[in-house]
Structures are given as C-alpha cells and as structure tokens.
Known about the structure:
Number of strands of chain B: 12
CATH class of chain B: Alpha Beta
Number of domains of chain A: 1
Radius of gyration of chain A: 12 Å
Oligomer: heterodimer
Mean pLDDT of chain A: 95
Strand content of chain B: 15-25%
Radius of gyration of chain B: 18 Å
Largest sheet of chain A: 5 strands, mixed
CATH class of chain A: Alpha Beta
CATH architecture of chain A: 3-Layer(aba) Sandwich
Distance between the termini of chain A: 10 Å
CATH superfamily of chain B: Metal-dependent hydrolases
Amino acid sequence: MRLKEVIERLGLVVCTHRERDEVEVTGGHAGDLLSDVMANSQAGHVWVTIQVHPNIVAVAVLKDLAAIILANGRQPQSETLEKAQVQGVTLLTTALPTFEVVGRLYGMMKDEG
Amino acid sequence: MELPPFLQSERKRPGYADAFNSSFIFHPSSFLESGVMLRRWRADLHIHTCLSPCAEKEMTPPAIVGQARKVGLELIAICDHNAADNAEAVMAVGRREGVAVIPGIEITTSEEVHILGLFDRLRDLEAVCDHVDAYLEGENQPEVFGPQEVVDETGAVLRENKRLLIGACGLALDEVVGLIASYGGCAIASHIDREAFGLIGHLGFIPDVPLNGLEVSARMTVAEAREKFALGTQYAIIRSSDAHRLEEIGKASSVLEMEAPTVPEIRRALEGVEGRKIISDFGF
Lengths: 113, 284
C-alpha cells in the first residue's frame, strides 16, 4: 500500500516531505525505545511512536523507514522538524492514540493481502 | 577584577551579592573543627567531547578546557556516551591550565535512561567502560549519527571509535547504577527535567536505586525541578550543561563546598555530610 493511502485513510497530518507519499509501505513498527526500533524495524516500515526528539529522524534514516507517525497528539520538537526537513524524512502526526493507529494500520495492511 | 561574562548578567538578579560571593574564586574558605579547610567550586559535571556522535567536532580537550576557564569553571567532568576514550586527554590539559577535570561516562541503560558515572581513578572508569562495551551492540554510522573521534591532548584525531555509542547498552538501570557504585563512582541521573532519555520521562518515577544524585539541565533551576517533579528534599540535585558544543559549557553549573575537586568529595557534598554541601545552581 502506498504511504499516500495510509495518510488519507487515517487522516494523518503531514509535517514534512509530503512528496514522498508514493513510497510503498511494507509494514509497521510501534515502539518508543530507539534501540528497539533500530534492532527490529525494517526498510519501508511506518514507525508509530510518541518520541518527539531529533534522534528519531536519524533512526528513520538509518533504517530507511517509510515515515514516522507521532501518535497521541504529540508534536515534534522544532529541531526534529528541521532535521526531518533536511534529511528527507516524512513526519506525520495524529491525535489518535498509538493503540488505535497501530490497530487500524495493521487491519489495513492485512486486508491488502 | 573583571567579571567573567556569565557573572555580568548575574548583577541584575536579586541576591546578586550572594551569587557573586559564592562564585568568586578566592572566596574565604570555611574551617571545620577538624582542621579541614573547605572552599567553593563552580562545577559543570556533564560535558561531552568529540567522541560523542552528537557532539560537535570543536569539542577537543584544549577547546573544552579553554572555554571552561573562560566562563569561570573550576571543575568539570567529561561524560561521553557509553565510552571515555578522550577523558585522559582532557585531564592532562586541565592539569596544565588549572581546571580540575573528572573522568566520567554517560551510560544509556536498556530503558534508554541516561546515567552519569564520575570516577576518582581513570582505571576504575576504564573497567566500567569495558563492562559497558560488552553490552553494546552495533557499529556507528558516522554519516547518520555523527563521527566518534578519539583525539590526543592537542585535539588531533587519532582514530574513530567504531561502536554504536548512541545506542542503549544491555544493562538495566539498577545494573548500571550498581556497576558505577561497585567501582567507587558517583552515579547521577542525567537531565531528569528532560523527557527524552530522562529517568522520570522514561520510567515515570524515580525508582529505589542507589543514585548519588539527580541532574537538572540548563532548562530549569533546581528549585523549579523540585517543585515540578515533586522531589521534595529527598534527592541531592546538581545542575550541569550536558554541553555538546563549546558555547554550552558552563551554561548550567552548581557550586559545591568541598575540600578538593574529587569524586569522594563530590559524594560528600551530594550527601551533605561533614560540612560539604551543594551551595547553589546557576544557568544562563
């Protein structure tokens, strides 16, 4: 499924790099420990987290993630926004709690096949 | 005498006279009945070098010590992420330039909480580094996280540390604090006022582990932190800069009343025993 569809169906707000929405989403990862995401996520995954500090951008770049979704109404720090802009990372936000975002994402991807 | 720049702004604060007196280098010392002479030390106990991937390349031993002198610090501690390859070089420059330098480390626990370890002897710190290293995984990617430069006393690059120092080690909080204590170090929870990598931010509370103290960043005063996090008087709290670039050095600091700028003395000041104590904290 394309990131564009994820954004539309979940009503996500795009903070940076909307033009990357043609990217193919291969799966997802939910977690707030960077070490866990670095160890267990895969390229093309969408990452759902409540961490808003700039280090999340480096992790997204390192693992070649499709996008970061900040859940629960969390807003990125200004340095995080800047870094995401510079590094070409798509940063998305939602008021939905992590549990719901992940549940809905999982359902969407399962239906796809 | 010409006031260092950070003190000039202090003039406008209420209680300026107290602030000046407590930080003036040649403040009259207090004599204890035991004959021990105490004096006050302005300390920034959390400064990174160019070894930490997130720190700027300008954070070399001569530059760090030079900046510390410039802003009137008499005591600093070097705390890089999960390693301490540059500590000895900074200590050597400090000895020459008259700034006391304590070798330390900032360990990232498995819960991704940052804990400072300050050590009296370099070999104790090195033993702790070896232990932490055994629980670190992964290799650094300089283009993503930044370079991890090991340098000599002049700041010349000797090599790069290849380990993923930005990562979390496999030791939990209580294991890390226990490790620091077992080598006679002083364990302090870094920047508890910060959500990211902060003890309270990640665990939601301060667990019952033998920390010697808590650290607050430049973002708020110790008094504000005590109130905001309902810390009461239970914990010893110092303030430090967590400097990753030169201009941040001394941005937050504490004044400690001690006999000497050593780790056993810092522990006494944190405990508030034998006349040693934390006098005040500053930020700008």
